[in-house]
Every structure is written in C-alpha cells, then in structure tokens.
Amino acid sequence: MLRAIADVLRQIGGAIATVVTLPFRALARLFGGASRSGRARGA
C-alpha cells in the first residue's frame, strides 16, 4: 500500500518537474540560438 502511494507521488513529482523545466529549456534554446546566430553574424 505505501509503495503504491510512493509510486504515485513519484510520478506526480516527475510530471511537475517536467512542466516546470520545459519553459526554461525553451528559453535556453531561444537564447542559445540567438547568441549563436549573433556570433555568426558578427564574424
């Protein structure tokens, strides 16, 4: 019983972590692409 509850909580925590990190990953990709293209343009 406790193991089942722990598994559910772990899955919920994983889903929350994914939702929280997605916007930061998108921002990092945007800024990473912008800095890369900016450097290429400046060269």
Task: Explain what you see.
The protein is an all-alpha fold. It contains 1 helix and no strands. It has one helix at residues 2-42. The mean pLDDT is 86.
Biggest sheet layout? none
Number of strands: 0
Structural class: mainly alpha
> Which percent bin holds the helix content?
over 70%
N-end to C-end Cα span = 62 Å
The helix/strand order is H
Strand content: under 5%
User: Helical stretch count?
Assistant: 1
| Average pLDDT taken over every residue | 86
Query: What are the segments in which pLDDT stays under 50 over at least 5 consecutive residues?
Result: none
Which shape, going by the Cα principal axes? rod-shaped
Q: Compute the gyration radius: what is it?
A: 19 Å
Keywords:
mainly alpha, 43 residues
In short:
The protein has 43 residues and is an all-alpha fold.
Task: Break the fold down into its secondary structure elements and pairings.
Elements: H1 2-42
